[in-house]
Design goal:
Elements: H1 11-21, H2 24-35, E1 39-40, H3 41-44, H4 52-64, E2 68-72, E3 78-82, H5 84-99
Antiparallel strand pairs: 1-3, 2-3
């Protein structure tokens, strides 16, 4: 049974987000999407010392956590976008409060 985390999501959703953010490759993919949103796997895979399939698996983890949304572009090719609302939620719920001085 999933416990409610008290922030509108379940504990497992929060766990998936932080699991996704824990990996440096996935954070790098988020940085790339932040710099230029709406990229295909081929574009995102450039400069990684791993196969496209490995990058795709990292993108799947980000999508499962809700941090990335995949839409079909031209000719049905998947295009990856940041889910800024989830990122803002993580910031507001888990980061911002720790930056405030009491």
């Amino acid at each position: 049974m999933r416990r409610n985390s008290g922030d509108g999501g379940t504990t497992s959703n929060v766990d998936r987000i932080f699991f996704a953010l824990a990996d440096p490759t996935r954070r790098s993919l988020l940085d790339r999407l932040h710099a230029r949103d709406g990229q295909r796997l081929r574009d995102l895979s450039v400069d990684f010392a791993m196969s496209r399939q490995a990058v795709s698996k990292h993108l799947d983890v980000l999508a499962d956590a809700g941090l990335v949304v995949v839409r079909r572009g031209e000719r049905g090719v998947p295009v990856h976008y940041l889910n800024r609302s989830i990122i803002h939620h993580v910031h507001d719920r888990w980061i911002e409060k720790y930056l405030r001085v009491s």
